[in-house]
Amino acid sequence: MNYQFTIVVPVYNEEDNLLRVEKELLAYTKIATKTTKVLFVNDGSKDNSQALIETICDRNDAFDYILFKDNRGLSAAIKAGFDYTQTELVGYIDSDLQTAPEDFNLLLEHIGEYDLVTGVRANRKDSFVKNMSSKIANGIRRAFTKDGMDDTGCPLKVIKTDYAKRIPMFKGLHRFLPSMILLQNGKIKQIPVQHFPRVAGEAKFGLWNRLLGPLLDCFAYLWMKKKYINYDVAKTK
């Protein structure tokens, strides 16, 4: 099959969610506006996630996986997904399925004109502490990056793959994906999407990860913005 769109699904100890992920993403592939495949990136899970992933991939031709030797973090899992994607478009969704795969179609409507389209979680179904820490972190990040994005932590994005592969990822930079597209002189857009409570597994980020960690990452982004190299090739032989 000539696939056009790859959905990257980072996984870390999500054995209770994976069969639901299979069901929801398989259903999405049947209604997707682009021919779609799924790429699990197992970030060194310690539970039964890998066995489930292999079973899922064995029975679904459109599902593949990458297994890390060790736990390397969400940014590394996303980078690996981008690196191994061979389709013209790449997307990203969390394996907790707090966002809906069918909303990828909303983002895909705009990807022709834009280089990254990200979801904005409407009516978030998280705890008060999680919502407030996320809101504060997004405000701090916007002040540093001037990217105009309201919810860069939303785990539902579509990116043109050539832009995604040029993102110089480091730990924590998954929160700055729109900003990194802007560094490449790309165009970005945000679209409201659905949000649901987590029904299985455990959240992997605490207050430090949501608030203090991103503040430190802002300084790393500013350094990278100052040093970032762009070039356009006029001619080759």
From TrEMBL:
Gene Ontology terms for molecular function: undecaprenyl-phosphate 4-deoxy-4-formamido-L-arabinose transferase activity
One matching Pfam family: Glycos_transf_2
Gene3D superfamilies xrefs: Spore Coat Polysaccharide Biosynthesis Protein SpsA, Chain A
Record-level GO BP terms: lipopolysaccharide biosynthetic process
Every Glycosyltransferase 2-like domain range: 6-137
Keywords associated with the record: Cell membrane, Glycosyltransferase, Lipopolysaccharide biosynthesis, Membrane, Transferase, Transmembrane, Transmembrane helix
GO cellular component: plasma membrane
Keyword Transport tagged: no
Source species, domain of life: Bacteria
PANTHER family hit by this protein: UNDECAPRENYL-PHOSPHATE 4-DEOXY-4-FORMAMIDO-L-ARABINOSE TRANSFERASE, UNDECAPRENYL-PHOSPHATE 4-DEOXY-4-FORMAMIDO-L-ARABINOSE TRANSFERASE-RELATED
Protein name, as recorded: Glycosyl transferase family 2
High-level lineage: Bacteria, Pseudomonadati, Bacteroidota, Flavobacteriia, Flavobacteriales
